[in-house]
Structure formats: C-alpha cells, structure tokens
Amino acid sequence: MLSIWERNAFIQYDHIIIGSGIVGLSTAYYLKQKFPSQSVLILERGLLPTGASTRNAGFACMGSPSELLDDLSHRSEKEVVDLFRLRKNGLTRLSSILGHAAMGYKAEGSHELFFEEDTTVIDQLPYLNQLLRSEVESDAFVLRNEKIETFGLNKTKVKAMVENCCEGQIDTGLMIKNLILMVMSLGVEIKTGCPVKSFLDTGNGAEVVCLNSFAVDEIVFKSKTLTICTNGFATQLLPAMDVVPGRGQVLITKPIAGLKLKGIFHFHQGYYYCREYNCCVLIGGGRNTDFEKETTMELALNDNIQQNLVDQLRSFIIPNQEFDIDMQWSGIMAFGQSKRPIIQQHSEHIFIGVRMGGMGIAIGSEVGFQLANLIATAH
Ligand SMILES: Cc1cc2nc3c(=O)[nH]c(=O)nc-3n(C[C@H](O)[C@H](O)[C@H](O)COP(=O)(O)OP(=O)(O)OC[C@H]3O[C@@H](n4cnc5c(N)ncnc54)[C@H](O)[C@@H]3O)c2cc1C
Questions:
Q1: What are 231-282's pLDDT values in tens digits?
Q2: pTM for this predicted structure
Q3: Best residue for ligand 1 mutational test, from 25, 26, 44, 309 (most atoms within 8 Å of Cβ)
Q4: Which domains are delineated in the chain?
Q5: Which residue's CA lies nearest to atom 31 of ligand 1?
Q6: Substitution site in 25, 41, 42, 53 for ligand 1 pocket (most atoms within 8 Å of beta carbon)
Q7: Which is the most buried residue in 126, 178, 203, 309, by most CB within 10 A?
C-alpha cells in the first residue's frame, strides 16, 4: 500500500538499472552524461553491492601470456586482440571517470609465474608481443627471471617469470565507493536492499517488481528504460541467457613483517592470482580444481579450494614464512560460450549488460559506456 506522496515522488523514473556493480554504476554515469536532466535509479538487492565488484582481487587485467595463448588455442587472433582492446578501453574509461587516486590505481605492471610444466609459453612471447603491437607500443611481455628471488618467491618451484607492462592494481573497494559517490553527486538514486523479482516491457516503458522486506506488498517501479546489470545472477531474471555463474574464492593474510612480495601476480592460465595489499598477501582462484561446486550463485566458501590457496602460499609465494589468515570470502562471476560480454537490447525498453567473465573490473566501464549509447540510440 503506497501513499500518494510515495507514488508521486518515488516510483517513476526515466531510467532504471538493476545491479550496483561496476557495470550498473558505469551505465548510470554515462546515462547522466547523455541526459543530465533525466532521472536514473539503481536497484540493488544487497545493502552493499553483492556480486563480484567489491569481492574481487583488484587487478586491472588485460590477460596473462598463458591465458592469451589458451584463448588463442580455440579463438581467432582477431577475437583475442579485440578482447584485449576492450579491457584497455575499459580501464581508460574508468580512469577518466574517477582519476587514479580515487581508485587506488598503481600502474606498476604485473607478473606471471611459470613452473616446470609450463615454461614452453616463454618461447611464444615474441609471437604474443607482435600480435599485440597494434595495442601496445613496446613489448607487452618481458622475461624477468632475475626478479624471482627479489619478490621472495621459491626459486626451486618458480622456474620463470614474465613481466606484463599493461596491467595495474586497483583498490576495488575504494573504486566502487567513489563510483557510488560520483553517480550520486550527479543525481543518481540508489536503493539498496531491493531485490528485483520480475520485470515487464509494457510497450510504453518498463515495470520492475521489487520485494519490500518491511511490507507485505511488493513495490512496482516504472521507467522509460530498464537496464539489467546483474552479471552472475542474470539467469534469475533472464532464464534463457547464455550466462553461467562461476564462484571465485579469495583469502588474505594478516600483515607479514619483512614481506618481499610487491605488485600483482598470475599463474596457471589466470586461474590463480595473488598480490600484496597493505603488507598482507591476498590470493584467489582455484575454480578450475572444482568447476562443479564453483558453478553456483551461493556466496560461500569451498574448504578444499581455500586449503589449496593456503598450500600455494606455503609452497612458493611466501615459503618458510609464518602467516595467519585474516579474512576469506567469495564472489560470483559470469561466464558463457563466448568470452565477450553480452551488451544488447532485449526488447523495446529493456537492455542487458552481463557476462563479464573474470575481467569485469577492466571492461566494466566500457560496457557501461556502450550500454548508455545503445539506450540513447534507441530512445
Ligand atoms: C574472486 C574474484 C576475483 C576477480 N578478480 C578480478 C580482477 O582481478 N580483475 C577484473 O577485471 N575482474 C575480476 N573479477 C571479475 C569482476 O569482479 C567482475 O567481472 C565484475 O565485478 C562484474 O561487475 P558487474 O557489475 O557486471 O557485476 P556485479 O559486481 O556482480 O554486480 C551485479 C549486482 O547485481 C545485484 N543483483 C543481482 N540480482 C539482483 C536482483 N534480482 N535485484 C537487484 N540486484 C541484483 C548484485 O547484488 C550485484 O551487486 C573477479 C571476480 C571475483 C569474484
């Protein structure tokens, strides 16, 4: 039961977006750039954004050599280079919205670690550097074995290390918080604790049905356009979408005295990643060791994978060093047949921007930009 005041002031908007992750927030930002006087509402089911954007590792990833080569084994060179460009453009857009300080960005590159079994990748670095020449002026990938011990890594396990000059690190919490403050300063409204149950294109606009935890009845919001940015949860509202959820496990240690590890690192085709953060080591990944259990929307821990992450720390990342675990968490990503995100018009008034894979921090703002363009062209 609404009051007349609520109905007149809180229900009708020009644009509604579902999901307050990086894609929803970037879409709101670019809609406000295009239509400053039009109203934009974001509906978020959690009290905080509750998907991947505040639960990731904070890598501005372009793709590690082994991941790019793995992609090239079943995708065309053009597709792989296009995806690399999309990530680069996304990061440029995010930087232009917030500036580097507001996202805690450090352009210090990254490193990929190689073990006995996968050093053949090294032979293909000249090919990869040539392939990416249109996107990166100098060599993107350079062998840096001399730095393995500088970072305190176990040299008997880590046989080679390749520096990637294109990547950087982000403080992902700071970035999303500042993106929220930025869009709110432009007049975007965000309602949290608002799970969307269903939606409808009425022919004149969209209706969005939200559960309301403090009342028996639901609230139906109305708008001219609706954009769905729910990524790993997309099939809850759009069952036919080619989107499969993929959970990512993460842990962070307590501060470690004398820690030598600095910067960000990948290994095993990007399935694992670790970084230094405030003198602690954050490590994540291992989804490939239990795809079945990790194909889920449930934000929970997988004990086997968490133990596997601890084992990697002990074995070669911080060997011979005592550490305590401070926090463990998971986040939900979205995958599908293609590695490209889905950016499309679903019906006359409804738009979709989902399936960011493991790269949504890099590409999210470019996806928001393209969604806002799509909406502006259609309306
Ligand atoms: C562990 C982990 C590590 C990662 N590391 C990196 C990395 O280093 N670099 C990188 O580029 N990417 C990384 N990613 C991927 C990246 O975080 C995601 O691709 C990106 O955050 C997706 O953004 P999004 O806005 O599309 O989705 P999300 O951030 O998931 O946002 C979707 C939002 O929709 C909300 N929602 C869902 N359903 C509803 C509903 N019915 N009603 C209302 N709201 C709803 C959710 O609560 C959520 O807040 C990682 C992801 C994880 C989980």
A1: 999 999 999 999 999 999 999 999 999 999 999 999 998 899 999 999 999 9
A2: 0.97
A3: 44
A4: 4-54+174-242+338-378 (3.50.50.60), 111-168+244-335 (3.30.9.10)
A5: 21
A6: 53
A7: 309
